[in-house]
């Protein structure tokens, strides 16, 4: 069964999840079928985005890829936040960064590396993205580090610091866009010619329609997913930490995942890395700040004080991803190392009893 | 108003601060005017140093730049240490490293980057400096890390370890000078020819005189600054941690700041980076050890056990600065990222209630 | 006295240690003489391995070097584990990583750098090794990080997580060998021609015999070393932490040390680095997991929950070694920096009172 056929098959879970929900087949069934239904929708969003990316060029294309991959993430998170699942939403932020840097980048390098002995990517862009991501990730972890290293930090201080950090990050995000689209756009334009040669121009309007419909359906399925999340995962014996860090991001990042792996197997590692690193960067620079501010507006205050072990895990993911991607080359072993790091972190979160030592 | 005119104007604060002090205009006024009076003096020291640097070449020039920038720092710190403000002095060490790596390097890359699309610097020297700085910074943070990760560390152990670390660092400092001036001086000599072409030979004796006079005046103003520091900052609602980490280094590093930014805007990024990184290196390899030993001699024992969040902040600053400077290229966005990191850390120190969780 | 003569002289400690043991000259004498007897044996193993390496090429040669260096380590550790010295064995794992990255690499770069102004090594292999080592080191530190950042982690959870991590690491180790010997062997083959030109083909069988005999003797001496370790080191006023982190690895790593420094002084930095980094990698990817599994089998359960300060020290060693080796060049100052880092860590472990703050 080819990739396209699997996606068509998974679309069946849209009606199945609806049936499960309205016919009361149980929370676990609803949760699983809604989760499965989101996968093809996110993947179609990915395909649509890739098609549109061919027309609009790799810069805007990479940005589009990351935005609409993160749209799934953002939709699930906003619905969960509104439902009061603050802990799961916070865990899904760190989990999403970890999963993009280790799981998505790992599979891209592994599957790309099984086809091509060595793959290369433009290290200038990789470096700028990595620097922005490093800054953003450190910034969102700062309230956690402060709370972890000091006693007597009140919730109000953490909330104020988190809001202040969120505002700085959104400004940085805007400047990053200015850099990549205006002042230094030429850095990102290499490879456009290549892409146009191998592809007939797709219909932008058609694919934009696909994007819109999928977005609405994702929102609908997310409502069912979030509504059943707590009971379903506790039935499976999973903690809210594991659910947030591992389960939710796998569903939410399916689009980037599909896109990044597909283009890696076509030896377009530049686009692949720009999706994985760009997506982590955008989670930290845009999604996390938006959620902090949204939580404040919705009256469901969400600070950036994560579980200290989440902080460790994100630091680990960033260090390994930097170490592996900084030379602008990849091979299957590097992909395997990223996946091994993800596995080990996943095991740790699985065993984690979710009680932090401080505070 | 041009830069030179601003400096001339700020010189007025020398008599004003004297008046404020002897006519008892209040601690806050004395503190602010003495701080403002130090700025042009430090800047003149910077100008004098840059002029002398043209004659003696970039190696010795870079060293001179860092030394006389750090002279301001060292003078303020010694006076504060003698006055018993051990906490402020300790915080000013970490703050000075952070401010050189993020604020000074950030403004240099931003303002340089607004004039030149991309600026380059010799990565060999940058790398050797970065390695020395990494080692030095890690070494001065080690007593903090030990105290933070273990219970039952006595003050005597911390003091002994700090003294031992100080001796090792001063030896390393001497070897670093041997490397850059003797065995591998050729690495640092590139660019001398350029400098000589664009500049008529300045009068070394004249500028040395300026350096001397400014040094004496800085010492005098520092006495007034330190004498009013505690009351003035508590009037402003600032903690001693914030004062040490943020306020004192901005005053103390004004010289490096002015020099680094000025030369960055003339596209001499090599000299600019060598000032910022070299200054951080020298704070950790020379100023901090000297203060530990001076404290021991003066009977005001000062160990290297910092607030754990200072350790986090320095680690963050070093990681981001390494990540951004390691490719030997810079642009305005990289400068902005450094400044954003500084802003976020500044916010965290502003909100910090200054009670460490361990010990 | 030449190197060879020193080694011949040290062989005298084999009969001396036997006499000390059976004539009851005291634990300290047995400990010291057994330790000294291991040095020439390990060094002969190193020489034998280097000779064999010339025939079998640098890849397999580098691997052989690391394996038989680590054989000494593994033998001592297994005997100590069986004797119930779990804390010393755990400390010797982190100590061995630290000593390879800082002491062995440091002396190689320093002594090589005193002969050659600048030495270079193939950065592709260095980078792959560094990435594997980074992953492995992070993985073995993860249980410690989890226990340190959370309360309520039971010993059973730590044991299970440690076993799971061990299995993942052994799989990664197998894949690393597949990479370096099969799919990407060409990356490691540069330099074979050079080696063959300068050397007549040695007798593989003779040197294999030497390896075998030395291995058996090392095992025998290790029995005496371990049997007297606790009493001897407490007589010297050393904690078990210092013994495990500093003393045991210096004895256990003598082979790599001798090999790495010798080849560095012949300007074969590729082989030298591959010994030092490869050995650290192998400790983390192979020796540590084998010990965890062996402890489980032997009924002496050993988890990977180290003293938090060991975690800090390993992280520091890895960061500095990465920072210094990532550019594929070395000089005497870089060697000195590594040795300074080792000295400072050694001082900290010397002063450490061995009571962790959590758990």
Automatic annotation (TrEMBL), chains A, B, C:
GO terms for biological process: intracellular calcium ion homeostasis. Pfam families: Na_Ca_ex. GO terms for molecular function: calcium:proton antiporter activity. Coiled coil: none annotated. It is found in: Endomembrane system. Residues 28-181, 209-348 form the Sodium/calcium exchanger membrane region domain. Ca(+)/H(+) antiporter that extrudes calcium in exchange for external protons. This is Ca(2+)/H(+) antiporter. The lineage of its organism: Bacteria, Bacillati, Cyanobacteriota, Cyanophyceae, Nostocales.
């Amino acid at each position: 069964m080819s990739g396209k056929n699997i996606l068509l098959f998974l679309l069946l879970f849209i009606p199945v999840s609806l049936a499960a929900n309205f016919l009361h087949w149980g929370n676990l069934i609803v949760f699983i079928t809604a989760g499965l239904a989101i996968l093809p929708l996110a993947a179609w969003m990915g395909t649509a985005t890739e098609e549109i990316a061919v027309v609009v060029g790799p810069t805007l294309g990479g940005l589009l890829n990351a935005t609409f991959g993160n749209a799934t993430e953002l939709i699930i998170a906003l619905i969960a936040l509104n439902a009061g699942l603050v802990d799961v939403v916070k865990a899904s932020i760190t989990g999403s960064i970890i999963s993009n840097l280790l799981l998505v980048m790992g599979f891209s390098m592994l599957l790309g590396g099984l086809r091509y002995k060595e793959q290369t990517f433009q290290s200038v862009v990789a470096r700028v993205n990595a620097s922005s991501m490093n800054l953003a990730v450190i910034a969102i972890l700062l309230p956690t580090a402060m709370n972890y290293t000091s006693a007597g930090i009140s919730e109000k201080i953490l909330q104020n610091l988190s809001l202040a950090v969120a505002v700085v990050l959104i400004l940085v995000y805007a400047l990053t866009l200015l850099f990549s689209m205006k002042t230094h756009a030429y850095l990102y334009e290499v490879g456009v010619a290549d892409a146009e040669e191998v592809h007939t121009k797709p219909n932008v309007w058609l694919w934009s329609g696909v994007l819109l419909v999928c977005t609405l359906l994702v929102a609908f399925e997310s409502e069912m997913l979030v509504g059943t999340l707590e009971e379903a995962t506790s039935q499976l014996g999973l903690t809210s930490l594991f659910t947030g860090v591992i389960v939710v991001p796998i569903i939410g990042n399916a689009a980037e995942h599909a896109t990044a792996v597909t283009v890696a197997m076509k030896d377009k590692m530049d686009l692949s890395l720009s999706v994985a690193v760009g997506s982590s960067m955008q989670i930290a620079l845009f999604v996390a700040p938006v959620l902090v501010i949204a939580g404040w507006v919705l009256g469901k205050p969400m600070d950036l004080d994560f579980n200290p072990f989440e902080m460790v895990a994100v630091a680990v993911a960033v260090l390994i991803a930097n170490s592996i991607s900084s030379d602008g080359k990849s091979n299957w072993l590097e992909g395997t190392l990223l996946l091994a790091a993800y596995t080990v972190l996943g095991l740790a979160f699985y065993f984690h009893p979710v009680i932090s030592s401080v505070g």
